[in-house]
Specification:
Elements (H helix, E strand, L loop, with lengths): L1 E5 L2 H11 L3 E3 L2 E4 L2 E5 L5 E3 L2 H4 L20 E3 L3 H16 L2 E5 L4 H13 L6 E3 L7 H9 L2 E2 L4 H29 L12 H17 L4 E9 L2 E5 L7 H12 L3 E13 L7 H12 L3 H13 L21 H7 L4 H8 L34 H16 L5 E12 L2 E12 L18 H5 L13 E2 L2 E8 L6 E2 H9 L8 H7 L7 H13 L3 E4 L2 E4 L1 H9 L3 H4 L1 H16 L4 H20 L23
Parallel strand pairs: 1-4, 1-7, 7-8
Antiparallel strand pairs: 2-3, 3-4, 5-6, 8-9, 10-11, 10-16, 11-14, 12-13, 12-15, 13-14, 17-19, 18-19
């Protein structure tokens, strides 16, 4: 008998149906030489401090740091978990081979390996690795089962991540709570959570310290086009008035006129962060909500595996693209032009070198039915249109730059026209009538520029525009996710952002949890779409003197090491030793430091679910 272990009952049912294991038993399905059982996500967890020594149950500053010689795992204390584990344990003993059908990612690998370790599995283990739950994908996956050994490094990275989070989370949380908490509340510190909070606090301080100032700009209108003076903003009304008087005494002269035709590249396919960013910008969905909606679409077989960090497809997917496009009945008006000719095999879409465990999120050949919620339909629509848009031609544009002169003062004006909409046609019916407009584009309306001749002169209408400087913008969930992805660097270019992903903080699948944890701890709050640090969050970051705990870039370097462990390029033991050294040094420094006062915000009812520290 072959034993298949899935990560949840619904996935187990899909697998059992394909394998012909249709006889229901207590905690598993049986038939055709297979038993198919399941976990409920994590059945096991790392042992707690008191599991190693009873004195660690009390939070004692002078027992820190807590560093177990060997980290152990235990079952989560839950009757349902214990019952299901007994089923798995007995089936492991009876079977001849185990097929790990867990979620095809680092966390899924860790969940299954811990369960098999706890069940003392000594049977051969194979790995099912699939990117969608359609019947065809499951069949194809079972035809190409891999050796569990192929995914050993993935497990080692997941295990190192869990141990790293335990070492820092347990020790630093106890350390700061006992030193600065004043027995009022727990001060939660986490490997990813704390640098994320530090980014929010830094932005908050920049906003609070910002002093708004008035400024004046010289502008003029010539042939219905508004030109702006190419000089620094003026700091006084008097200087602006003097400038205006000067402009009135001189004619406007065109000194340069240039039209450049260019192309706007197609948007990239979605990785999880990109989808969360777009859903937050367009619909105000939280990162956690978007993850739940896309996970549900995956389990309903309408989209591929969502917890991904690449925007590319595997080259071997190319032959399936036409079939997926044909199956997208609701979008037939958009797919019909694509299907009239062969789909382009673009390196911007298909690139094996850019694909890690999984490819980007795309629809499957199973279109959704009326069983979707409104939110799921909206998220599916984002994925579907992005998938269609990448195969359309690029958008052709015309950029016009005009330079003028009034006396000795230079002026500039620019405009943009869409010559051939290309991929923008996919988004023509959207309410904003534009796919990728960012806030800057929405604010500045592009001018239609007529034909100018260099050397032409004429009367013009000069005027003064008075404005006020703007403070830095607060983070939204969308901009915070991008900041986490790039370790706090402001990066608009998609290709550069792709390169920085290896040094991002957290993983696509955990970032939503981190943000929710910060809400739960009352370290941040939301006002409309904007995120703000609370006084407790600000005080906590101010208390932490060690930059290692707060630096997004240094945390990004740890993340890169975890990815290297995945690839077999870095030793998991070395990563653990580095964290032990850091925790030991941190403990000494904090214990010997001066006490500080931290403000605590009153607990409020929250809808957020409890999440583990990261």
């Amino acid at each position: 008998m072959k034993l298949c272990i899935a990560e949840k009952p619904s996935v187990a049912r899909d697998i059992a149906k394909v394998l012909g294991a249709t006889t229901p038993k207590s905690g598993y399905m049986e038939g055709n030489g297979y038993c198919v059982t399941w976990t409920f996500g994590h059945l096991c967890t790392l042992k707690e401090p008191h599991d190693y020594a009873p004195e660690y149950k009390a939070w004692n500053l002078f027992l820190l740091p807590i560093i177990p010689k060997n980290f152990g795992i235990k079952l989560i204390n839950n009757i349902g978990v214990e019952r299901q584990f007994k089923v798995i344990e007995s089936l492991v003993k009876e079977c001849e081979e185990v097929i790990n059908c867990g979620d095809a990612g680092q966390e899924g690998e860790l969940i299954q390996r811990w369960v098999l370790q706890k069940a003392k599995c000594d049977k051969p283990v194979k790995r099912l690795w699939i990117s969608s739950l359609t019947e065809d994908a499951i069949k194809e996956g079972f035809e190409k089962l891999k050796s569990a050994e192929d995914y050993k490094n993935l497990y080692l990275a997941g295990n190192a991540r869990a141990i790293g989070d335990w070492l820092l989370g347990i020790n630093a949380t106890r350390l700061f709570t006992k030193k600065f908490g004043g027995n009022k509340a727990v001060l939660s510190i986490g490997r990813v959570q704390t640098p994320t909070l530090a980014m929010l606090v830094k932005r908050q301080k920049e906003i609070d310290a910002f002093v708004q100032k008035d400024y004046w700009e010289l502008k003029t209108k010539y042939r219905e086009v508004v030109f702006t003076a190419a000089i620094d903003r003026l700091q006084s009304a008097e200087r602006a008035e003097k400038g205006l008087e000067y402009l009135k005494q001189n004619l406007f002269e065109i000194i340069a006129f240039e039209i450049k035709e260019g192309k706007e590249k197609n948007p990239r396919l979605f990785d999880l962060t990109g989808l969360q960013v777009e859903a937050n910008k367009k619909y105000g969905f939280s990162a956690e909500s978007t993850l739940n909606y896309i996970q549900s679409l995956y389990e309903k077989k309408h989209t591929t595996y969502p917890r991904v960090d690449t925007t590319y497809l595997s080259e071997n997917l190319y032959p399936k693209i036409s079939g997926i496009l044909r199956s997208m009945n609701f979008y037939s008006d958009l797919t019909a032009p694509l299907l009239e000719a062969p789909i382009p095999m673009s390196k911007a879409v298909f690139d094996d070198a850019k694909v890690t465990d999984h490819h980007a999120i795309i629809p499957t050949e199973i279109p959704p039915t009326s069983n979707l919620t409104r939110e799921e339909k909206l998220v599916y629509d984002l994925v579907a249109k992005r998938f269609i848009a990448v195969f359309y031609p690029e958008c052709k544009i015309s950029n016009t730059l005009v330079e003028g002169q009034v006396g000795t003062i230079n002026f500039k004006a620019s405009g943009k026209q869409i010559l051939e909409p290309g991929w923008r046609l996919v988004y023509a019916k959207d309410s904003k009538n534009n796919a990728e407009k960012d806030e800057k584009e929405e604010k500045s309306e592009e001018q239609l520029i007529p034909e100018f001749t260099v050397g032409e002169k004429g009367e013009h209408e000069p005027f003064v525009h008075q404005g006020r400087t703007s403070p830095p913008k607060p983070y939204t969930e969308a901009t915070l996710l991008r900041a986490m992805e790039t370790a706090g660097r402001q990066v608009e270019d998609e290709e550069l952002r792709e390169l920085l992903k290896n040094n991002g903080i957290g993983r696509p699948s955990t970032r939503a949890n981190i943000i929710e944890t910060l809400f739960k701890r009352k370290y941040i709050e939301k006002k409309r779409k904007n995120l703000f640090a609370t006084q407790t969050g600000i005080d906590l970051i101010d208390t932490i003197e060690d930059e290692l705990l707060k630096s997004a870039e240094l945390t990004g370097e740890w993340e890169q090491k975890l990815r290297k462990i995945e690839k077999g390029e870095y030793e998991a033991q070395k990563f653990k030793e580095e964290l032990i050294e850091m925790v030991t040094q941190l403990t000494k420094k904090v214990i010997n430091s001066k006490g500080k006062v931290i403000s605590f915000q009153e607990e409020r009812p929250t809808k957020s679910k409890s999440k583990k520290k990261k």
